[in-house]
Amino acid sequence: NSLFKDNKYVKGFKIEGVASETSRKIQDEYNLTAKKFNLKSYIFIKFINNKLEGSVVKFLSEDEQNRIIKLFSLNENDLLVIGVSNILKTLNFGLGAIRSQLAKKYNLIKPNTYDILWVVDFPLFEKSEETGEITPCHHPFTRPLDKDLDKLESEPYKVYSYTYDIVMNGYEAGGGGLRIYDQDVQKRIFNVLGFSDEDIKRKFGWFIDALKFGTPPHGGLAFGLDRLTMILSGTDNIRDVIAFPKNLSAVCPMTNAPQPVDNDQLKDLGIKVIDKEEK
Questions:
Q1: Largest CB tally within 10 Å, which of 211, 212, 248, 275?
Q2: What is the architecture of the domain spanning 2-105?
Q3: Would the pTM of this model clear 0.85, i.e. be above it?
């Protein structure tokens, strides 16, 4: 099927026993969520009367339909949501958001509970799906696991890091990691990222040199207090707990900021505004 063949990644999830309740109108409610996360293609499929139903089903062969039924272990009245994308992060975030909203709609999340977990040892590097270049998953100063140091140059995508996020009720409530404190390791990281010795000296020489003087092992953890407050207060809109929230247009309703800046202020800052020519 072209929907699957033209996309690099395909993922899906099922919700048991809600297919008959999920009308076309309900399905369309999630278009805005998908658009927010740039997920351009996702589909709802119902398993009713021992067969698949949905707008895309007519484009699937009988073999493909049977494979989907077996893969997701579908039972009567199950709802299946499948997303496709050429960018894995887009697919994960988009499907994850739709999954969370459906779980709330069908009361699958226990009320007044605080489920907490730690996510640890994130990969150190990832391959940019836009450029194909190797990039840091967090930042280039993240400390790799000691046991993975021998893979830095030979298998960089198999190197993991001393990083950690705390997740509460599906929201990232905080995160952090350990920093590199060894000069040689930091230089190796920069080399893996494609920096020449000259680039390293020009852009980060002051930092590399500072590591010579016995930087102690260090790290950190930061909590999102506004997000924690949102969870504890029972709202799913972070603007409800921010003193001066911006609206969807990034405007402050109380002060109407941002406002035009006086020319004298721009002059003090050495900034010149050039109007675009109208076509």
A1: 211
A2: 2-Layer Sandwich (3.30)
A3: no
